[in-house]
C-alpha cells in the first residue's frame, strides 16, 4: 500500500513539474530593457529626496566647502536642532494635521451630497452646474486672494486655521463634486428603482445603496485632499500671518531671511515637513490601490 502511494505521489509530482516550469516567465531582452528604464526613472524621481536628506545632516561649513552633491564629512543633527529652536514645529504640525483632516473629510462629505443631487437626483441644469464647479477649480489662487482676505477679516477668522479650512473645504468640495457626479451618473437605474420600491427614501438610498459602492472612491479622495491641503502655500501665507496659527509649509518659509539663507536648516525643516505626508501616504497606500482597482472593475 505504501509502495502504491509512493508511485502515485512520484507520478503526480512528475506530472506537475512541467506545469510549474511552464508558468515561469522567461524575460526577453525587451523585458530587461523596460526594467532598467523603470529603475532609472525611479532613481531620478527619488534623487531630489535623497539629496534633501543628505544635506539635512551637514553643517553649514561643510555645505559651503564641498557643495550640495558631496557626501557629508560628518553626520550631525545641528540643522534639525537649529530648526526646532527657530520654529515651533509641534504647533505647526498640529495645525497642519487638524486643518488638513477637517478639510479632507468635510470637503469629501460636501462633495458626496452635492454629487448625489447632481448625478442621481438629476436636478435641472446639472451639466451647467458641473461645468461651473470645474471652472471654479481652475481659477488661480492669486485671483481669489483679495475677496478671501476681506471675507476672512469680516468673519473674524483671519489668522486662524478656520479661515483656510473654510476656503479649501469649498474648493476641494467643488473638485470632488465634479469627480463623484460623473461616477454617480453611471449608476444603474434599476438598482435605485428597486431600492425605492422597497420603501427606501432618498436619504436611505444614499447611505445604504450609494455610499457602500462609492466608498473606495471616497477613501481615495480623502487621501488626496489631505495631501493637497497639507502642501497648500499661497493662500495660507496670506491668511495666517500669526505664528501660532501657521501650518508646516508657512513655518518653513519663515526661515528665509532677507539677505541670507541657511540651506542646511531649510533642508532639515523640509525633511521634517515631508515625513508626515510620506508616512500618511504609506499608511493609506492600500486604500488608494483598492479604490483605483474598484473603480477600474466598475
Topology:
Elements: H1 2-23, H2 29-56, H3 60-66, H4 78-86, H5 89-120, H6 126-138, H7 141-154, H8 161-184, H9 189-197, H10 202-231, H11 234-239, H12 248-253, H13 263-283, H14 285-297
Structure description:
This protein has 14 helices and no strands. It is 79% helix and 0% strand. The protein has a domain at 87-254: MetI-like (MetI-like fold), CATH 1.10.3720.10. The protein is an all-alpha fold and 298 residues long. Residues 1-18 have low confidence and may be disordered. It has helices at residues 2-23, 29-56, 60-66, 78-86, 89-120, 126-138, 141-154, 161-184, 189-197, 202-231, 234-239, 248-253, 263-283, 285-297.
CATH class of the domain at 87-254: Mainly Alpha
The CATH homologous superfamily of the domain at 87-254: MetI-like
Taking the alpha carbons of the first and last residues, their distance comes to 53 Å
Query: What fold name stands as the CATH topology of the domain at 87-254?
Result: MetI-like fold
Quick rundown:
The protein has 298 residues and is mainly α.
Question: Which short descriptors sum up this protein?
Answer:
298 residues, single chain, globular, 14 helices, mainly alpha, MetI-like fold, disordered N terminus
Amino acid at each position: 500500500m505504501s509502495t502504491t502511494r509512493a508511485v502515485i505521489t512520484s507520478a503526480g509530482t512528475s506530472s506537475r513539474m512541467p506545469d510549474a516550469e511552464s508558468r515561469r516567465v522567461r524575460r526577453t531582452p525587451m523585458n530587461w530593457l523596460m526594467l532598467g528604464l523603470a529603475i532609472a526613472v525611479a532613481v531620478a524621481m527619488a534623487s531630489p529626496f535623497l539629496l534633501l536628506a543628505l544635506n539635512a545632516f551637514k553643517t553649514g561649513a561643510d555645505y559651503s566647502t564641498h557643495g550640495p552633491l558631496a557626501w557629508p564629512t560628518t553626520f550631525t543633527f545641528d540643522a534639525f536642532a537649529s530648526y526646532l529652536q527657530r520654529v515651533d514645529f509641534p504647533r505647526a504640525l498640529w495645525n497642519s494635521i487638524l486643518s488638513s483632516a477637517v478639510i479632507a473629510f468635510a470637503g469629501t462629505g460636501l462633495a458626496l451630497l452635492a454629487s448625489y443631487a447632481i448625478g442621481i437626483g438629476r436636478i435641472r441644469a446639472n451639466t451647467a452646474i458641473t461645468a461651473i464647479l470645474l471652472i471654479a477649480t481652475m481659477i488661480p489662487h492669486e485671483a481669489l486672494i483679495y475677496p478671501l482676505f476681506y471675507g476672512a477679516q469680516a468673519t473674524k477668522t483671519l489668522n486662524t486655521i478656520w479661515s483656510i479650512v473654510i476656503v479649501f473645504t469649498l474648493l476641494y468640495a467643488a473638485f470632488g463634486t465634479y469627480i463623484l457626479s460623473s461616477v454617480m451618473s453611471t449608476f444603474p437605474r434599476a438598482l435605485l428603482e428597486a431600492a425605492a420600491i422597497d420603501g427606501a427614501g432618498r436619504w436611505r438610498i444614499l447611505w445604504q445603496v450609494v455610499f457602500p459602492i462609492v466608498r473606495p472612491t471616497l477613501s481615495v479622495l480623502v487621501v488626496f485632499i489631505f495631501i493637497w491641503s497639507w502642501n497648500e502655500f499661497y493662500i495660507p501665507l496670506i491668511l495666517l500671518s500669526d505664528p501660532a496659527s501657521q501650518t508646516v509649509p508657512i513655518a518653513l518659509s519663515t526661515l528665509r531671511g532677507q539677505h541670507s539663507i541657511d540651506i542646511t536648516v531649510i533642508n532639515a525643516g523640509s525633511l521634517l515637513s515631508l515625513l508626515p505626508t510620506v508616512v500618511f501616504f504609506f499608511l493609506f497606500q492600500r486604500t488608494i490601490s483598492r479604490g483605483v482597482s474598484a473603480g477600474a472593475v466598475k
